[in-house]
Amino acid sequence: MSDGTPKPSALAAKVDKKRKRQAEDSKPNDAKPTGSTSEGPNKKRKGGKNFNDRKNKGKGKGKKDDKGKSDQKPAKKEPVDTKVTETKGGIDEAIGKMDGRLLADHFVQKARRHNKELSAVELSDLSVPDSAFLDTSAFEQTRSLEQLPAFLKAFSPNKGADLAKASEEKGTPHTLVISGAALRAADVVRALRSFQTKEAIVGKLFAKHIKLEEAKQFLERARTGIGAGTPARISDLIEAGSLKLGELERIVIDGSYVDQKQRSIFDMKETHLPLLQLLTRPELRERYGAAEKKIKILVF
Protein backbone atom coordinates (compact mmCIF):
# COMPACT_ATOMS: atom_id res chain seq x y z
CA MET A 1 0.00 0.00 0.00
CA SER A 2 2.96 2.30 0.75
CA ASP A 3 4.03 2.06 -2.94
CA GLY A 4 0.68 3.65 -4.08
CA THR A 5 0.72 6.69 -1.82
CA PRO A 6 3.17 8.89 -3.87
CA LYS A 7 1.01 8.70 -6.99
CA PRO A 8 -1.98 10.62 -5.55
CA SER A 9 0.43 13.19 -4.08
CA ALA A 10 2.19 13.72 -7.45
CA LEU A 11 -1.12 14.04 -9.26
CA ALA A 12 -2.42 16.45 -6.65
CA ALA A 13 0.75 18.50 -6.91
CA LYS A 14 0.40 18.61 -10.69
CA VAL A 15 -3.23 19.70 -10.51
CA ASP A 16 -2.40 22.29 -7.88
CA LYS A 17 0.41 23.67 -10.04
CA LYS A 18 -1.92 23.92 -13.02
CA ARG A 19 -4.52 25.76 -10.96
CA LYS A 20 -1.89 28.22 -9.73
CA ARG A 21 -0.80 28.88 -13.33
CA GLN A 22 -4.40 29.46 -14.40
CA ALA A 23 -4.92 31.77 -11.45
CA GLU A 24 -1.83 33.78 -12.35
CA ASP A 25 -2.92 34.02 -16.01
CA SER A 26 -6.36 35.20 -15.00
CA LYS A 27 -5.11 38.01 -12.72
CA PRO A 28 -4.23 40.60 -15.51
CA ASN A 29 -7.67 40.11 -17.09
CA ASP A 30 -9.35 40.56 -13.73
CA ALA A 31 -7.25 43.66 -12.98
CA LYS A 32 -7.85 45.37 -16.37
CA PRO A 33 -11.47 46.48 -15.78
CA THR A 34 -10.72 47.80 -12.28
CA GLY A 35 -8.03 50.17 -13.51
CA SER A 36 -6.01 49.39 -10.30
CA THR A 37 -2.55 50.98 -10.08
CA SER A 38 -1.26 48.25 -7.72
CA GLU A 39 -0.40 45.95 -10.61
CA GLY A 40 3.19 45.17 -11.48
CA PRO A 41 5.22 47.12 -14.04
CA ASN A 42 4.56 44.59 -16.77
CA LYS A 43 0.82 44.75 -16.19
CA LYS A 44 0.90 48.56 -16.29
CA ARG A 45 2.84 48.53 -19.55
CA LYS A 46 0.46 46.05 -21.12
CA GLY A 47 -2.58 47.93 -19.94
CA GLY A 48 -1.01 51.23 -21.06
CA LYS A 49 -0.33 49.87 -24.52
CA ASN A 50 -3.91 48.79 -24.97
CA PHE A 51 -5.14 52.20 -23.81
CA ASN A 52 -2.78 54.04 -26.17
CA ASP A 53 -3.81 51.81 -29.03
CA ARG A 54 -7.44 52.66 -28.39
CA LYS A 55 -6.54 56.36 -28.07
CA ASN A 56 -4.51 56.38 -31.27
CA LYS A 57 -7.22 54.47 -33.04
CA GLY A 58 -9.70 57.07 -31.91
CA LYS A 59 -7.40 59.84 -33.16
CA GLY A 60 -7.09 58.16 -36.51
CA LYS A 61 -10.84 57.94 -36.78
CA GLY A 62 -11.13 61.59 -35.90
CA LYS A 63 -8.71 62.53 -38.69
CA LYS A 64 -10.68 60.50 -41.14
CA ASP A 65 -13.88 62.21 -40.06
CA ASP A 66 -12.21 65.61 -40.32
CA LYS A 67 -10.97 64.76 -43.77
CA GLY A 68 -14.41 63.63 -44.77
CA LYS A 69 -15.86 66.89 -43.50
CA SER A 70 -13.23 68.97 -45.31
CA ASP A 71 -14.05 67.22 -48.56
CA GLN A 72 -17.66 68.30 -48.16
CA LYS A 73 -16.82 71.97 -47.59
CA PRO A 74 -17.96 74.24 -50.44
CA ALA A 75 -15.26 75.45 -52.79
CA LYS A 76 -13.92 78.93 -52.33
CA LYS A 77 -16.06 81.40 -54.24
CA GLU A 78 -14.43 83.01 -57.26
CA PRO A 79 -14.88 86.72 -58.02
CA VAL A 80 -18.24 87.30 -59.65
CA ASP A 81 -18.20 88.21 -63.35
CA THR A 82 -21.55 89.68 -64.31
CA LYS A 83 -21.22 88.69 -67.93
CA VAL A 84 -20.30 85.10 -67.18
CA THR A 85 -23.08 84.57 -64.65
CA GLU A 86 -25.63 85.72 -67.21
CA THR A 87 -24.19 83.51 -69.91
CA LYS A 88 -25.77 80.18 -70.86
CA GLY A 89 -24.59 77.98 -73.68
CA GLY A 90 -22.35 80.59 -75.29
CA ILE A 91 -24.89 83.41 -75.09
CA ASP A 92 -24.53 86.60 -73.08
CA GLU A 93 -28.12 87.27 -72.08
CA ALA A 94 -27.33 90.70 -70.65
CA ILE A 95 -26.84 92.18 -74.13
CA GLY A 96 -30.43 91.53 -75.14
CA LYS A 97 -31.72 93.50 -72.16
CA MET A 98 -30.00 96.76 -73.15
CA ASP A 99 -31.80 99.63 -74.83
CA GLY A 100 -30.15 102.15 -77.14
CA ARG A 101 -28.79 104.33 -74.36
CA LEU A 102 -27.23 101.41 -72.50
CA LEU A 103 -25.77 99.97 -75.68
CA ALA A 104 -24.18 103.28 -76.64
CA ASP A 105 -22.64 103.52 -73.18
CA HIS A 106 -21.51 99.89 -73.38
CA PHE A 107 -19.71 100.61 -76.65
CA VAL A 108 -17.97 103.65 -75.17
CA GLN A 109 -16.89 101.85 -71.99
CA LYS A 110 -15.39 98.98 -73.99
CA ALA A 111 -13.62 101.42 -76.30
CA ARG A 112 -12.11 103.23 -73.32
CA ARG A 113 -10.97 99.96 -71.76
CA HIS A 114 -9.38 98.58 -74.93
CA ASN A 115 -7.81 101.83 -76.13
CA LYS A 116 -6.38 103.64 -73.12
CA GLU A 117 -3.93 105.48 -75.35
CA LEU A 118 -6.73 107.33 -77.20
CA SER A 119 -7.56 110.90 -76.28
CA ALA A 120 -11.03 112.10 -75.31
CA VAL A 121 -11.51 113.57 -78.79
CA GLU A 122 -10.50 110.31 -80.47
CA LEU A 123 -12.89 108.34 -78.25
CA SER A 124 -15.65 110.78 -79.11
CA ASP A 125 -15.03 110.18 -82.80
CA LEU A 126 -15.48 106.44 -82.19
CA SER A 127 -18.72 106.80 -80.23
CA VAL A 128 -21.99 105.62 -81.75
CA PRO A 129 -25.01 107.85 -81.00
CA ASP A 130 -27.96 106.52 -79.01
CA SER A 131 -30.28 107.19 -81.94
CA ALA A 132 -28.41 104.67 -84.08
CA PHE A 133 -29.62 101.70 -82.03
CA LEU A 134 -32.95 99.98 -82.40
CA ASP A 135 -34.26 98.68 -79.07
CA THR A 136 -34.61 94.89 -79.43
CA SER A 137 -35.17 94.06 -75.76
CA ALA A 138 -38.73 92.96 -76.61
CA PHE A 139 -37.36 89.87 -78.35
CA GLU A 140 -37.97 87.12 -75.79
CA GLN A 141 -36.45 84.10 -77.54
CA THR A 142 -32.94 82.92 -76.77
CA ARG A 143 -30.45 84.73 -78.99
CA SER A 144 -29.01 81.60 -80.54
CA LEU A 145 -28.24 81.24 -84.24
CA GLU A 146 -31.40 79.21 -84.74
CA GLN A 147 -33.39 82.28 -83.69
CA LEU A 148 -31.51 84.78 -85.89
CA PRO A 149 -33.99 84.55 -88.81
CA ALA A 150 -36.89 85.11 -86.39
CA PHE A 151 -35.01 88.05 -84.87
CA LEU A 152 -34.58 89.70 -88.27
CA LYS A 153 -38.23 89.17 -89.16
CA ALA A 154 -39.38 90.62 -85.84
CA PHE A 155 -37.60 93.93 -86.48
CA SER A 156 -38.14 94.27 -90.22
CA PRO A 157 -41.13 95.83 -92.05
CA ASN A 158 -43.92 93.49 -93.13
CA LYS A 159 -42.56 90.74 -90.86
CA GLY A 160 -39.43 90.40 -92.94
CA ALA A 161 -41.13 89.86 -96.28
CA ASP A 162 -38.31 91.68 -98.09
CA LEU A 163 -35.41 89.93 -96.37
CA ALA A 164 -35.16 87.37 -99.19
CA LYS A 165 -34.97 90.11 -101.84
CA ALA A 166 -31.94 91.94 -103.20
CA SER A 167 -31.23 95.13 -105.09
CA GLU A 168 -30.81 95.02 -108.85
CA GLU A 169 -27.44 96.63 -108.31
CA LYS A 170 -24.72 94.09 -107.62
CA GLY A 171 -23.06 94.07 -104.21
CA THR A 172 -25.70 96.28 -102.58
CA PRO A 173 -27.13 94.54 -99.49
CA HIS A 174 -29.98 95.77 -97.31
CA THR A 175 -28.60 93.95 -94.24
CA LEU A 176 -25.12 93.42 -92.84
CA VAL A 177 -24.50 90.95 -90.01
CA ILE A 178 -21.17 91.52 -88.25
CA SER A 179 -19.44 88.83 -86.17
CA GLY A 180 -16.19 88.81 -84.24
CA ALA A 181 -14.53 85.91 -86.08
CA ALA A 182 -14.61 84.33 -89.53
CA LEU A 183 -15.69 80.90 -88.27
CA ARG A 184 -18.62 82.46 -86.46
CA ALA A 185 -19.52 84.47 -89.57
CA ALA A 186 -19.57 81.22 -91.57
CA ASP A 187 -22.06 79.80 -89.06
CA VAL A 188 -24.18 82.94 -89.46
CA VAL A 189 -24.26 82.46 -93.24
CA ARG A 190 -25.56 78.93 -92.78
CA ALA A 191 -28.19 80.13 -90.30
CA LEU A 192 -29.50 82.65 -92.86
CA ARG A 193 -29.88 80.20 -95.76
CA SER A 194 -33.65 80.51 -95.48
CA PHE A 195 -33.36 84.02 -96.96
CA GLN A 196 -31.22 82.95 -99.90
CA THR A 197 -32.57 82.63 -103.43
CA LYS A 198 -31.03 82.58 -106.89
CA GLU A 199 -31.60 86.33 -107.07
CA ALA A 200 -30.47 87.11 -103.52
CA ILE A 201 -27.29 85.45 -102.29
CA VAL A 202 -26.17 85.61 -98.66
CA GLY A 203 -22.69 87.06 -99.07
CA LYS A 204 -19.61 85.68 -97.29
CA LEU A 205 -17.75 88.80 -96.24
CA PHE A 206 -14.95 87.28 -94.18
CA ALA A 207 -11.36 86.25 -94.78
CA LYS A 208 -11.49 82.55 -93.85
CA HIS A 209 -10.43 80.70 -97.04
CA ILE A 210 -11.66 83.68 -99.10
CA LYS A 211 -9.12 86.12 -100.47
CA LEU A 212 -10.00 89.79 -100.73
CA GLU A 213 -9.93 89.67 -104.54
CA GLU A 214 -12.30 86.70 -104.54
CA ALA A 215 -14.73 88.57 -102.29
CA LYS A 216 -14.56 91.64 -104.52
CA GLN A 217 -15.28 89.55 -107.61
CA PHE A 218 -18.25 87.90 -105.90
CA LEU A 219 -19.83 91.26 -105.01
CA GLU A 220 -19.27 92.59 -108.52
CA ARG A 221 -21.21 89.75 -110.13
CA ALA A 222 -23.83 88.76 -107.53
CA ARG A 223 -26.99 90.34 -106.19
CA THR A 224 -26.70 90.24 -102.42
CA GLY A 225 -29.51 90.97 -99.98
CA ILE A 226 -27.69 89.97 -96.79
CA GLY A 227 -23.97 89.98 -96.15
CA ALA A 228 -22.33 88.31 -93.15
CA GLY A 229 -18.74 88.93 -92.19
CA THR A 230 -16.14 90.50 -89.92
CA PRO A 231 -15.53 94.23 -89.33
CA ALA A 232 -12.11 94.41 -90.99
CA ARG A 233 -13.10 92.55 -94.17
CA ILE A 234 -16.33 94.53 -94.55
CA SER A 235 -14.39 97.79 -94.20
CA ASP A 236 -11.86 96.62 -96.80
CA LEU A 237 -14.65 95.83 -99.26
CA ILE A 238 -16.27 99.23 -98.68
CA GLU A 239 -12.93 100.95 -99.25
CA ALA A 240 -12.48 98.98 -102.48
CA GLY A 241 -15.89 100.11 -103.71
CA SER A 242 -17.11 96.54 -104.13
CA LEU A 243 -19.53 96.65 -101.19
CA LYS A 244 -22.05 99.44 -101.71
CA LEU A 245 -24.07 101.00 -98.88
CA GLY A 246 -26.67 102.91 -100.89
CA GLU A 247 -29.58 100.65 -99.91
CA LEU A 248 -28.36 99.47 -96.53
CA GLU A 249 -31.19 99.49 -93.95
CA ARG A 250 -29.80 97.66 -90.94
CA ILE A 251 -26.54 96.57 -89.37
CA VAL A 252 -26.89 93.56 -87.09
CA ILE A 253 -24.10 93.02 -84.57
CA ASP A 254 -23.65 89.45 -83.38
CA GLY A 255 -23.20 90.70 -79.82
CA SER A 256 -24.71 88.00 -77.60
CA TYR A 257 -22.40 85.23 -78.75
CA VAL A 258 -19.40 84.41 -76.54
CA ASP A 259 -16.64 81.98 -77.48
CA GLN A 260 -15.05 79.25 -75.35
CA LYS A 261 -12.94 81.87 -73.60
CA GLN A 262 -16.08 83.80 -72.63
CA ARG A 263 -15.28 86.62 -75.08
CA SER A 264 -17.78 88.48 -77.21
CA ILE A 265 -17.14 90.81 -80.12
CA PHE A 266 -16.94 93.62 -77.54
CA ASP A 267 -14.26 91.90 -75.43
CA MET A 268 -11.51 91.61 -78.04
CA LYS A 269 -9.56 94.71 -78.97
CA GLU A 270 -8.65 93.25 -82.35
CA THR A 271 -12.33 93.10 -83.30
CA HIS A 272 -13.93 95.85 -81.22
CA LEU A 273 -11.83 98.72 -82.59
CA PRO A 274 -12.42 97.74 -86.26
CA LEU A 275 -16.13 97.43 -85.41
CA LEU A 276 -16.25 100.99 -84.06
CA GLN A 277 -14.26 102.29 -87.00
CA LEU A 278 -16.79 100.67 -89.34
CA LEU A 279 -19.88 101.90 -87.50
CA THR A 280 -18.58 105.47 -87.33
CA ARG A 281 -17.72 105.80 -91.01
CA PRO A 282 -19.05 109.17 -92.26
CA GLU A 283 -21.36 107.59 -94.88
CA LEU A 284 -23.00 105.54 -92.11
CA ARG A 285 -22.97 108.05 -89.26
CA GLU A 286 -24.87 110.67 -91.26
CA ARG A 287 -27.71 108.20 -91.84
CA TYR A 288 -28.29 107.23 -88.21
CA GLY A 289 -31.63 108.80 -87.31
CA ALA A 290 -32.01 110.36 -90.78
CA ALA A 291 -35.46 110.93 -92.27
CA GLU A 292 -34.53 109.17 -95.51
CA LYS A 293 -32.42 106.07 -96.08
CA LYS A 294 -32.14 105.63 -92.35
CA ILE A 295 -29.83 102.94 -91.01
CA LYS A 296 -30.45 101.20 -87.69
CA ILE A 297 -28.05 99.14 -85.61
CA LEU A 298 -29.50 96.01 -84.03
CA VAL A 299 -27.52 94.05 -81.45
CA PHE A 300 -28.47 90.38 -81.57
Automatic annotation (TrEMBL):
Residues 1-88 are annotated as: Disordered. InterPro entries: Cms1. This is U3-containing 90S pre-ribosomal complex subunit-domain containing protein. Residues 63-88 have a biased composition (Basic and acidic residues). The lineage of its organism: Eukaryota, Fungi, Dikarya, Ascomycota, Pezizomycotina. GO terms for cellular component: 90S preribosome; nucleus. PANTHER family: PROTEIN CMSS1. It comes from Aspergillus niger ATCC 13496. It holds the Pfam family CMS1.
